[in-house]
What does this fold into?
Amino acid sequence: MLGLPVPHRAVPRRLALLAGAWLLPVLAACGGGGRALPSPPPPPTGGSLPGAAGLVRTTAVRGVEVAVHLPLRNVAELEALVERQSRDGSPDYGRFLSPAQFRARYGPSAADLAAAARTLETLGFRTEVSSQTVLAEAPQPVVERAFNVHVRSVLARGGATLGFDRAATLPSALTRLGATVALSAHARHVHAKRLSAQPFAPDNRYGPVGPYWFTDLKQAYEYPSYRFARGDGRTIAIVIDSNVLDSDLALYFGHEHLAPPAVERRPVDGGPAPYDPSSASAGEASLDVEQAAGSAPGAHVMLYGLPDLSDPSVYDGYLAAVEDNRADIVSSSFGICELYYTPAYNGGVDATSILQQFHDLFLQANAQGITFVASSGDNGAYDCLDPSGSTYVKGVENPADDPNVTGLGGTNLVTAFVPGSRTSAYVRENAHYDRYDPAQGALPNEIFGSGGGESIVFRKPPFQLLVRTGSGSRTVPDLAMHSGGCPLGAVMPCPIDRSGAVVAVGGNFYEYVGTSLAAPEFAGLLAITEGRLGSRLGNANYYVYALARLFGSSVYHDNIPGSNGAYVSGPGYNLVVGNGTPRGKYFALEWFVPSAGVPWSPSNP
It folds into this structure.
């Protein structure tokens, strides 16, 4: 174990040092709170009735759906509040809002939302109202007349989607309300990748690079002992377009001698399609629940099941979690390149307002104390296809790019291995990328690696002033955890030290890789941290970066070698692993409790 350069019992229970004078001028200097660079507005997502039991769309889709979004009120005050809520020593520390309090102080007024709905209804739309948006549906000719546009097919990753052929012209009644409208059904993609179509029969522990169980990862990342911290009293929400099988959870957790979690299903917009164990989303859902619940076995897990990963469905899932206000942490392991919302990909129409709509919803979540966690993507720095689809270009993914979300990159973990022993003590990590094989259909510069880079949409947020990011924009990721490498389709043989994780899907064990592994595992660590601190964290990035500023390598493994194709990982913050990978109990400020030991032991069952 590394030596800790702190005096005995000097670590604060909460980050009392964050109230120190060094932090206040740094945060005040930024002021903008990570608002969008071009200051876009919002877009196509579904509505729901705040406070209603269902919080799902009730309109049958017989035409074209758009979302008319109204701006938040008192945004500068709200962003300052979120910062104070996350700073120990502030009178607002941990004093989070209820959804009703948020709507009363910062959301669009009920009168304005009602006025927007009435205007749309007079134009021939059917409407539903959510906390920030009016969902409107009408036949295509009605939509085109109302906004002086034509609805047509536009380029999207993996196919075509609907969009406007020009910027929408809003009726004057909506313009006076500051409303914006956009149309898109961009589909996000999961980050989980199965290494083989064939299942395997696990036999004890396998080698220095796994594939790992959650108990291996807890020993490697120095989680606090199971006897001291399990995430009790916390709730983790997983958002994904698939269900999970209870039998898979029993199989997976039974292998590690733990009772399976009792997952609470929360269908959104009718819920997911019938379970298909061969689908990418089924593997993602199983992976997310197993990693999160394994990381924090005392936490309650909710599964927000979506019909698909289109923008409207994803927004509705996030909205339901925010309005329910039951989850402390919301984890999702999917994303989409933010470039795909720019005019070059949408027939000359700027659709970045969609990202601003998500941004406002994440800001509401933070004000309520909810932390959003997302994986940063698996295509390294070159995450985005160019508009022609012929090559990959630099770009980062949403939602991990949003300043109100904690973005997780990935590494290859190497642990101690003694044949016949279960030990998984930390040895080292790397963040080297793997190249996909053009002979198998890959583009020449297509790679597999930790997603990272600079946002073209969001400004540098205040918390990133606490480290040197080398950019005036929001950079990704914020930190990293084990994700593995050498996916199917990579140039073989892959270099040494490529790891993976075990996932139970459809009654069998498979090996998976991807930053999908990192996000739910970190969600579990956050649940443990919040359980010990006795409070939600809201925008956890203030906590993440403050720890980096205060304690550096005492809390993070921050000298991890590697590259994601354009950027190099090394000491300090970088665009491959962020601040590094967390040392669990130190991240949770439980410096002096025992660490999780060998898997299947009382400290790490």
Q: What stands out?
A: The radius of gyration is 23 Å. Confidence is low (pLDDT under 50) at residues 1-61. The longest helix spans residues 280-295.
